[in-house]
Fold these 3 entries.
Entry 1:
Amino acid sequence: MHADKPIAESTVRRLSLYLRVLEHAMERGIRTISSEELADEGGTTSAQVRKDLSFFGSFGTRGRGYHVAELVSELQRILGLGREWRVYIIGAGKIGAALASYHGFVQRGFTVLGIYDNDPRLVGTIVDGVTVRDFATLADDARRESPEIVVLAVPGEVAQAVAERVVAAGIHAILNFAPVPLHVPAHITVRSVNMALELEGLAYAIVHRDSVTPAA
Amino acid sequence: MHADKPIAESTVRRLSLYLRVLEHAMERGIRTISSEELADEGGTTSAQVRKDLSFFGSFGTRGRGYHVAELVSELQRILGLGREWRVYIIGAGKIGAALASYHGFVQRGFTVLGIYDNDPRLVGTIVDGVTVRDFATLADDARRESPEIVVLAVPGEVAQAVAERVVAAGIHAILNFAPVPLHVPAHITVRSVNMALELEGLAYAIVHRDSVTPAA
DNA sequence: CCGAGCTTGTGAAATTCTTCACAAGTCCTC
DNA sequence: GAGGACTTGTGAAGAATTTCACAAGCTCGG
Ligand SMILES: NC(=O)c1ccc[n+]([C@@H]2O[C@H](COP(=O)([O-])OP(=O)(O)OC[C@H]3O[C@@H](n4cnc5c(N)ncnc54)[C@H](O)[C@@H]3O)[C@@H](O)[C@H]2O)c1
Ligand SMILES: NC(=O)c1ccc[n+]([C@@H]2O[C@H](COP(=O)([O-])OP(=O)(O)OC[C@H]3O[C@@H](n4cnc5c(N)ncnc54)[C@H](O)[C@@H]3O)[C@@H](O)[C@H]2O)c1
């Protein structure tokens, strides 16, 4: 639909953020927003906002700004959110269960088709309306349902092995919650959410903050 | 202890990752590791590893590599993990509860002193050994216990307001799980974990993958 | 219909981050 | 104790990302 140059991951991240800000603005009845306002809410700069958007087209009106509802649907289209995404969650533990029942995902078109676990005590139970399936049936189910995305919420020790089973089942995108780097073939897309790493980043910032900032 | 230049957030992130890889290597009885091996495991390049470490000193031996145990303790020191960090979790819902009982945090020195909620039905209950406290007592408790870090696991609609109470209570570091950008004074450090945003990044990658890669 | 006031879209400059490439140091074998 | 095989640490080059700055375009009031 438009020429695809390679877009930086940081840009895509910000687009998601803009979308959230815009939806919030829409709820409050705001019709029009400038790059400046969008930047303030999203924690970036107006030039950054305009540059990010310019990779995909030209959506604003000079002298006026962006029409909120229009930009929302443009961003949804760009991010691929106009459709339903079929998701499997693997690991029906604490994180897996929390994610399964998280309404924020459904709202954006991510439908959880199944939760998988290999613990016989969990298989067959129901988590927020979704039955826990036996991990052994993953490949068969995937052939039938062709999910696009897997959320990996298993212990770190087995994450790599499970990821390989996921890839073998023909699924090309993984959201990884285990605190280990996953090694997968190049055509598989992986994003990791590593909470321990973020906490450590805070610790680093606290330790080094006072030594950097000149004392007030 | 050493001259602090401003270090990129991406570098700090990778240091945490190296630490994890090194600990894993140590468990397997590996004594020595090269920047090449460390890079392969951590999903980066050897030059990147050496450059990252070079900001903090010179920890390896030419011709030999890095002594694993030694580099582990250097990284722990750099990241500020040699000590106990006192953490409050706010929001005793699904995510808050999962985090409270997550062993990976305790292991790295992050001690959860208290979980806060404003739902009277939850206050007083016990989540994995930690009692849920009344959010109204936050400021008083903080004065007494001086926690360094708050984990914010409340609904997005109240996240900004709760963050302001946290800042007012004198806490300077926030790990935010709500899917909204937080606006805080400059001396407060915030890291956000935004899972919806990562999922959207996957959706974007899937939609744009095939149009970028020349058909095989 | 004009001019003042805004705000976008975008090349170019500046900055930041990553990769290269190699001198220098270590180890091991013979 | 000399030479070959490795591997670090680091300036310099290169790539990527962000910021600047301004021409061009729209709006609105009179
Ligand atoms: N709980 C947290 O707050 C938290 C925070 C950060 C990261 N994580 C990470 O998320 C992952 C899950 O954490 P959790 O707290 O939900 O753990 P958990 O132990 O509660 O759940 C893990 C689930 O995975 C299942 N499982 C194990 N091996 C499996 C396999 N081979 N195939 C299918 N299922 C399998 C287990 O039966 C269990 O139900 C871990 O990697 C953890 O490090 C958790
Ligand atoms: N559950 C998930 O998988 C998931 C995934 C991504 C993001 N999140 C985000 O994490 C946050 C929490 O999600 P959750 O699923 O745990 O929600 P939840 O509704 O289960 O828990 C939220 C808790 O916060 C408490 N709370 C509300 N207002 C409060 C206030 N002013 N002070 C103190 N406590 C208050 C509520 O009583 C409730 O117990 C949300 O912002 C959500 O968007 C959750």
Entry 2:
Amino acid sequence: MENVTEKPSLDFLRAKIVEDLKVNKNEGKVVTRFPPEPNGYLHIGHAKSICLNFGIARDFNGRCHLRFDDTNPAKEDVEYVDSIMEDVKWLGFDWGNHLYYASDYYDALCNYAIELIKKGKAYVCELTSDEMRDYRGTLTEIGKESPHRNRPAEENLDLFIRMKNGEFEEGTKVLRAKIDMSSPNVHMRDPVIYRIKKAHHHRTGDKWCIYPMYDFAHCFSDSIEGITHSICTLEFEIHRPLYDWFLDELNVACHPQQIEFARLNINYTVMSKRKLLQLVKENHVKNWDDPRMPTISGMRRRGYTPEAIRAFCDKVGVAKRENVIDLSLLEFCVREDLNKTAPRVMAVLNPLKLIIDNYPDDLVEELDAVNNPEDLSAGTRKVPFSKVLYIEKDDFKEVAPKKYFRLTPGQEVRLRYAYIIKCESFVKDTSGEITEVHCTYDSSTRGGNPPEGKKIKGTIHWVAEKSALDVEVRLYDRLFSKENPDDVEEGKTFLDYMNPNSLEILSDCKAEPGLKNVKALEHFQFERLGYFTVDKDSNYDRIIFNRTVALKDTWAKIESSGNN
RNA sequence: UGCCCGGUGGUGUAACGGUAGCACAAGUGCCUCUGGAGCAUUUUGUCGAGGUUCAAAUCCUUGCCGGGCAGCCA
């Protein structure tokens, strides 16, 4: 009780920023940036970075830039630029007018390179890439210096300008920083900073035929934008000395601080753009927005909400230790959000006909159903009820296992919001499959209220046959059946661990008629089943739902533990 | 074999020299017109060895384990 006013503990990044603010570093400003390369779609790992960078800016009254790190025209495309902007916005973040491209800085970057050359800190090297690899040395042996390393500055300048003018072929020359070929950090062994690429750039067109490398472009882009904290993932930690070297050599006014954190991993999926691209290109999934993909667009289509994703990113925390998050945490986050917001509705995925023998043949009653018990302001709706209904196949068993509360001969259940019924008999076809269940109802239990003193343990959902809507439902499961698909055995690839049952299409589902006019991305809870969203391929004639996540299923747990 | 980073329950993440806490997962019970939701409750942890200290998850030494780095990718 005495600790209620205690502040929640900060992650190490925010703690660092608090320290910086205390000593008035950067005049108290906090400026971050999210710097995607437009060479693929954003995934949930990027969401963590987005939430971090935009979240920090929000928490410290700073700002966060969206900057496309577009320094490799061979791999980049406007399609990706567009999708990235859409996804960041959808996640709920706003970069205001701080939208930038590294390509905006090509002139400035080129001038920085020239300055470096003039200072004698960069040189044009004509080694082939194979030779350069050779000269670089290994992790345990130091490198040796390029024969071009000690060219006079004027010659370097001339050569570099001619590179820029397109006088040389790709691969024949590069500009390198002159640092230290004996550094234990291979990134400091005279890294390439400019290479010739006669490629069309999605923004600068054919203006350039030399493009800066990441290490050179990134630190200066940060500096130009006045970034205070340049937050990136762990694999760039070893690049930090280089980041600092460039900024120190040219003595720029703004020297941001690079801080690294551990990227997000989730089990049963992959999180590398290369692998996601491969899944798309080789048609292992339908597209980047396939609902099984961990992409933002895929998760959106699957029915995840921005609120759920943000909550997830918040809960996973930030640290420097490698981590693998349980998929169950993600599922918890969507359920938690959708439970509060998704209207409840009844739908039957695997229909079984149920006939109430003592119910009038042509009567249709409109029964009241609560739209969301977690939010009474969502109101109620009318659901039509009549003699012939559909129920879930699973909700009837000829021979009931122990603790089975649903329909079985002689047992009573409640039809949600309708009546108490009793199972009298059932019909099997020649193959032994149950085709009809016959029940009687108690007309005094209208609305589902049992007589005084009587308890009904089981409640099942239903859809009236007459007015039922035919819908398609797509069930999704984890894309991979192995916890860590990146951990491949000899002779296999991550593709060998794909879950063959990650998609199940149910085309004969029945839903209550109120769902006739749903729109793409609307969320619902199908009572007792899970959360579902309307797929974008859905239309008036063919309504398609994607299962976002199933409800927690205590019965399934009891059942499976009993089978063990 | 070089350099850099990390090791806290099953999974994440706090505690910044002073009671190892929180969330998810798992278990149990209560409640319920969703076997949903909710509520209550339990189990499980500081990588090892030394040292400093009244006191170490925290500081030091060392070992072990995990990750990263040798693109004209980012």
Entry 3:
Amino acid sequence: MAITIATWNINSVRLRIGIVEQFLAAESPDVLCLQEIKTIDDSFPRKALIEAGYPHLAIAGQKGYHGVAIASKLPFKTVEKDDWVAMGDARHLRVRFEDGLLLDNFYIPAGGDEPDPVANPKFDHKLKFLREMVAWGERRRASEKRAIVVGDFNVAPLEHDVWSHKKLLDVVSHTPIETNLLGEVQAAHDWVDAVRHFVPPSEKLYSWWSYRAADWNAADKGRRLDHIWVTPDLAGGLVSTRTLREARGWEKPSDHVPVMLTLEV
DNA sequence: ATGGTAGTCGCACTA
């Protein structure tokens, strides 16, 4: 069976439920993983998603900040959320589907402006979060052979995941300490970068453009912060990926666009 | 080198 999974940092799901519905109607993924829903669970727009054909909802919300959710056509067998770095932040959800397939949805901390863990506690938090993910991968690697991890990782790991490798080497999201650490996370579970499986690393590819640019499209100073990784056992079933650049130009857009993967499971 | 925009039960914080 082929399934399609989408991941999208929506930057307030209540404000943007209209473009979520538009996206689901147009693309009809089986599963949508959202980050930065910016709402408590009770205010999550459940009805809109159920009516759009996504009756299975897992929500990890918090007031004002962060928050992740998974909306699915397929039922879940289990739902879990981990408290990473013991911060109490809503940055993670895990669901297992009925066939055993495992899906983790992450919103990794952005890390603030200064790439110094001593001067900047938010950067320290981000590094600790990534280190916990390394240990998590090592723990599960032997037992979880059919797993997918998606989300806003807030790291653009490759040279062509940013508009200028040289200019961004000291900019949080592309510093060597972060890209090396994300490499350790990837190696810890042998994750395959499903998007770069199809788009060669020599080709520029972005999933985020700052709101602060006067003309995001013309300047095109993007970064690839949103990712979909699969275990080696699933990599043989990879069918296609899409990164919906046009969504950045929609009415009242998120600063991130949806990233999608279709695979045989 | 700076400041630019967006969202959230605001008067600050996160991104």
